[in-house]
C-alpha cells in the first residue's frame, strides 16, 4: 500500500506540477487581481510557487545530487532576493514612468484581463529572448550573463541566479515596449509573478512531463540544452516563456536521448568561475572575467540535435 501511494504521488506530481504552476497559480493571480485584492497577496502566491517547486524536486528529482547544497544555496538565495526585488521595483515604478514618458493610449484595455496578460507575456517573451540571444554573442553582455551560466546543478531557485545588471537589461527589453504603449500596473504585477513562476519551472530539478508541449513551452526539458557548457552548443532555446521565437530564429534544439549531469553544465572555458555572490558581482569587470562571447569561448563540443 505504501509503495502504491508513493507511486500515485509521483505520478500526480509528474503530470500535475506544471499545470498547477502555470494554470493554477497564474490563474489565481489573475483572479485575485481582477477581484481587486491587495497586491501583497501576489507575494503569497509566489511563496506557494517556491514551496511547490522545492517539494516537486524532492518527490520526482531529475538528478538527486542537484538537490544537495554545494556551498551555493545561500548565494542563490541572495541572487533570488536581489533580482526579485528588482522585478518588483520595476512594477512599482510604472506609474512614475507613465507620468514622465508620454505613452499613446493603445493598450487593449477593453480586452478580458486574461487576454491582456497573455499579450503582455508574448511581447515580453520576444524582447527577453532577443536580449538573451544577443547575450551569447555580444562581449559585455556575455560577461554579465556568464554569471548565470556558471551553475553546475539546475534547480528552481537558480532561475534568478543572475547578475542584476543583466537581469535589468533583459527585463527592460521585455517590459519597456509594453510601458510605451500604456501597460497597466495590474497587468505588470501579474506579469512579474508569471516571470518568477516560469524561472522556477524552467530551471526545476523536477522530472516532470509535458508531452509535445516541450517543443513550444520554454520549460526544463528544453532549457537544459541551453546550459550545456561547451562553446556554441548552449546557443539554443533562448525563450523565457515559449520556444516560438527560437523556432523562428532556428535556435530550437532537442535530443530525446540526451541525459544531463553536472559534468555537462557550467562554462567549459572558465571551470573556476567564482562561486561567491560578491565575487560574481565583480568578476565581469575584471581582466579574468573577460570573454568575448559564449560562442567564442573554448573548448568546444559536438552540437546537440537542432530542429527547425
UniProtKB/TrEMBL annotation:
<protein>
    <submittedName>
        <fullName>Sterol desaturase/sphingolipid hydroxylase (Fatty acid hydroxylase superfamily)</fullName>
    </submittedName>
</protein>
<feature type="transmembrane region" description="Helical">
    <location>
        <begin position="12"/>
        <end position="34"/>
    </location>
</feature>
<dbReference type="GO" id="GO:0005506">
    <property type="term" value="F:iron ion binding"/>
</dbReference>
<dbReference type="GO" id="GO:0016491">
    <property type="term" value="F:oxidoreductase activity"/>
</dbReference>
<feature type="domain" description="Fatty acid hydroxylase">
    <location>
        <begin position="119"/>
        <end position="251"/>
    </location>
</feature>
<dbReference type="InterPro" id="IPR006694">
    <property type="entry name" value="Fatty_acid_hydroxylase"/>
</dbReference>
<dbReference type="InterPro" id="IPR050307">
    <property type="entry name" value="Sterol_Desaturase_Related"/>
</dbReference>
<dbReference type="GO" id="GO:0016020">
    <property type="term" value="C:membrane"/>
</dbReference>
<feature type="transmembrane region" description="Helical">
    <location>
        <begin position="113"/>
        <end position="131"/>
    </location>
</feature>
<feature type="transmembrane region" description="Helical">
    <location>
        <begin position="81"/>
        <end position="101"/>
    </location>
</feature>
<keyword id="KW-0812">Transmembrane</keyword>
<dbReference type="GO" id="GO:0008610">
    <property type="term" value="P:lipid biosynthetic process"/>
</dbReference>
<dbReference type="Pfam" id="PF04116">
    <property type="entry name" value="FA_hydroxylase"/>
</dbReference>
<feature type="transmembrane region" description="Helical">
    <location>
        <begin position="175"/>
        <end position="201"/>
    </location>
</feature>
<feature type="transmembrane region" description="Helical">
    <location>
        <begin position="40"/>
        <end position="60"/>
    </location>
</feature>
<keyword id="KW-0472">Membrane</keyword>
<keyword id="KW-1133">Transmembrane helix</keyword>
Amino acid at each position: 500500500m505504501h509503495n502504491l501511494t508513493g507511486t500515485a504521488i509521483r505520478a500526480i506530481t509528474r503530470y500535475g506540477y506544471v499545470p498547477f504552476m502555470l494554470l493554477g497559480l497564474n490563474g489565481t493571480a489573475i483572479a485575485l487581481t481582477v477581484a481587486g485584492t491587495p497586491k501583497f497577496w501576489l507575494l503569497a502566491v509566489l511563496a506557494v510557487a517556491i514551496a511547490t517547486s522545492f517539494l516537486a524536486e524532492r518527490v520526482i528529482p531529475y538528478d538527486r545530487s542537484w538537490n544537495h547544497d554545494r556551498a551555493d544555496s545561500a548565494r542563490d538565495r541572495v541572487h533570488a532576493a536581489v533580482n526579485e526585488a528588482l522585478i518588483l521595483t520595476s512594477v512599482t515604478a510604472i506609474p512614475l514612468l507613465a507620468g514622465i514618458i508620454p505613452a499613446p493610449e493603445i493598450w487593449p484595455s477593453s480586452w478580458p484581463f486574461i487576454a491582456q496578460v497573455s499579450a503582455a507575456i508574448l511581447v515580453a517573451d520576444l524582447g527577453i529572448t532577443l536580449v538573451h540571444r544577443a547575450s551569447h554573442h555580444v562581449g559585455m553582455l556575455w560577461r554579465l550573463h556568464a554569471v548565470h551560466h556558471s551553475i553546475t546543478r539546475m534547480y528552481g531557485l537558480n532561475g534568478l541566479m543572475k547578475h542584476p545588471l543583466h537581469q535589468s537589461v533583459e527585463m527592460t527589453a521585455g517590459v519597456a515596449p509594453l510601458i510605451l504603449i500604456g501597460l497597466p500596473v495590474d497587468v505588470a504585477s501579474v506579469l512579474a509573478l508569471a516571470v518568477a513562476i516560469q524561472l522556477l519551472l524552467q530551471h526545476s530539478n523536477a522530472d516532470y512531463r509535458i508531452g509535445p508541449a516541450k517543443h513550444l513551452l520554454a520549460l526544463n526539458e528544453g532549457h537544459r540544452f541551453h546550459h550545456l557548457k561547451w562553446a556554441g552548443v548552449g546557443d539554443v532555446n533562448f525563450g523565457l516563456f515559449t520556444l516560438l521565437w527560437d523556432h523562428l530564429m532556428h535556435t530550437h534544439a532537442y535530443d530525446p536521448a540526451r541525459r544531463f549531469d553536472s559534468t555537462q553544465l557550467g562554462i567549459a572555458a572558465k571551470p573556476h568561475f567564482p562561486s561567491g555572490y560578491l565575487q560574481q558581482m565583480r568578476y565581469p569587470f575584471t581582466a579574468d572575467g573577460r570573454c568575448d562571447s559564449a560562442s567564442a569561448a573554448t573548448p568546444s563540443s559536438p552540437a546537440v540535435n537542432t530542429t527547425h
